[in-house]
């Protein structure tokens, strides 16, 4: 019976995933088709701006397909961690180097708070950078100009605690329950425009769990900022 239950659950998940994916693919495809038809009918001028719009829709489609591929890998539980000793401070530096400019451009202050004297720890550097990039990228995206984002890493008992705190749009208590679900976005229309697929946090969670860690989000509500944290257990 348990086996039958499990199979039924997998089948339901599979059906839902196909439904979700078709829905996600339809939006950019409809837009691209619309642009092309307008071009063909002469409603839209064949100028660089029109081509740019079509190009950016295709870009979204491509990002979505890449995200989906990554999602299928993490959901199939085939994440092979490449664990090696890493300095936690160097991870934060990498994030600063890759995203720093985008913070400057949007006039958001990026602050780092690294506990001094942290030892090297065993983890998969690329995967943890992927998680941090997602969290810091979200903080950048969901924080209005003039805001502030703090990346913190410190020791907590036998775990390494990473957190990304922003002064952005915040998340309601109700929505906090869903944000790690695949394809979930708190504001569908706005995030559609900015290209979010609602997959990033699902992937981040799977990568943290592959390290036997936990990830969670906190917010005092809409307009009151958010903090995303994850703990990675480090055996002595
Ligand atoms: P997306 O690609 O849409 O950003 P994610 O899985 O990374 O997908 O995030 C899921 C949703 O969680 C986002 O669409 C957004 O609504 C919400 N979210 C994530 N990070 C933040 C944040 N720092 N502040 C406010 N909302 C956030």
Overview of the molecule:
- With 236 residues, the protein is of the alpha+beta class.
- It is built from 7 helices and 7 strands; from the N terminus they run ααβαββαββαααββ.
- Helix 2 (48-75) runs parallel beside helix 7, helix 3 packs parallel to helix 4 (125-141) and helix 4 (125-141) packs antiparallel against helix 7.
- The longest helix has 39 residues, at 2-40.
- The chain binds adenosine-5'-diphosphate.
- The site of adenosine-5'-diphosphate (ADP) has 22 residues, from helix 4 and helix 7.
Provide the descriptors you would attach to this structure in a database record:
236 residues, alpha+beta, five-stranded mixed β-sheet, two-stranded antiparallel ribbon, 7 strands, 18% strand, binds adenosine-5'-diphosphate
Outline of the structure:
This protein has helices spanning 2-40, 48-75, 88-105, 125-141, 173-176, 188-194, 200-210, and strands at residues 84-86, 109-114, 121-123, 148-156, 159-166, 214-219, 226-233. With 236 residues, it is α+β, with helices and mostly antiparallel strands. The mean pLDDT is 90.
CA(first)-CA(last) distance: 42 Å
Number of helices: 7
* Spatial sequence of strands, sheet with the most strands: 2-4-5-7-6
The biggest beta sheet reads: 5 strands, mixed
Which assembly state applies to the chains in this document?
Answer: single chain
Which ions and ligands are bound to the chains?
A: adenosine-5'-diphosphate
The helix content is 40-55%
Rounded mean pLDDT score: 90
Rg (CA only): 20 Å
The tally of beta strands, per DSSP, is 7
Percent of sequence in beta strands:
15-25%
Q: Based on CA inertia axes, which overall geometry fits?
A: globular
Poorly predicted ranges:
none
Helix-strand string: HHEHEEHEEHHHEE
| Class computed from helices, strands and strand pairing | alpha+beta
């Amino acid at each position: 019976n348990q086996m039958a239950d499990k199979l039924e659950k997998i089948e339901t998940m599979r059906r839902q995933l196909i439904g979700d994916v078709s829905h996600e693919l339809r939006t950019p495809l409809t837009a691209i088709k619309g642009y092309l038809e307008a071009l063909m009918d002469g409603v839209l001028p064949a100028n660089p701006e029109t081509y740019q719009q079509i190009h950016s829709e295709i870009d979204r489609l491509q990002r979505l397909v890449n995200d989906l591929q990554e999602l299928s890998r993490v959901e199939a539980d085939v994440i092979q961690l490449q664990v090696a000793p890493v300095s936690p401070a160097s991870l934060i530096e990498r994030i600063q180097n890759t995203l720093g400019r985008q913070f400057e451009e949007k006039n958001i202050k990026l602050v780092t708070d690294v506990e001094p004297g942290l030892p090297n720890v065993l983890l998969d550097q690329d995967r943890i950078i992927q998680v941090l990039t997602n969290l810091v990228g979200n903080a950048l995206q969901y924080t209005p100009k003039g805001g502030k984002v703090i990346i913190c890493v410190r020791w907590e008992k036998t775990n390494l605690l990473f957190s990304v705190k922003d002064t952005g749009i915040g998340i309601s208590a109700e929505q906090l329950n869903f944000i790690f679900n695949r394809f979930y976005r708190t504001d569908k229309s706005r995030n559609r425009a900015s290209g979010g697929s609602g997959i990033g946090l699902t992937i981040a969670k799977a990568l943290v769990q592959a390290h036997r860690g936990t990830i969670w989000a906190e917010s005092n509500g809409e307009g009151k900022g958010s903090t995303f944290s994850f703990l990675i257990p480090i055996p002595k």
